[in-house]
Specification:
alpha+beta, Glutaredoxin, Glutaredoxin_subgr, Glutaredoxin 3
């Protein structure tokens, strides 16, 4: 059973777009949460001590900022 993957993004964020391309290329299904369209999502992140997008959650682990190598380590092979 794969863990849910959630991408917190912002409209016009080039690094968010790179993550979307990376996840799609890997065939990873993910849920995108656009903090521009729904600013309250920033409160969700802040409650976890995170203050930046992109942030990707894989299950209960996360990668804040654009760190593709770290993200690939969390994704199922």
């Amino acid at each position: 059973m794969s863990q849910p993957v959630v991408l917190y993004s912002a409209t016009g964020c080039p690094l968010c777009a790179k993550y979307k391309t990376l996840l799609s290329a890997k065939g990873v299904r993910y849920e995108e949460r656009d903090t521009t369209a729904q600013p309250a999502l920033l409160n969700e992140l802040a409650a976890k001590g995170i203050r930046q997008v992109p942030t990707v959650f894989v299950g209960d682990k996360h990668v804040a900022g654009f760190r593709p190598t770290a993200l690939l380590e969390l994704l199922p092979a």
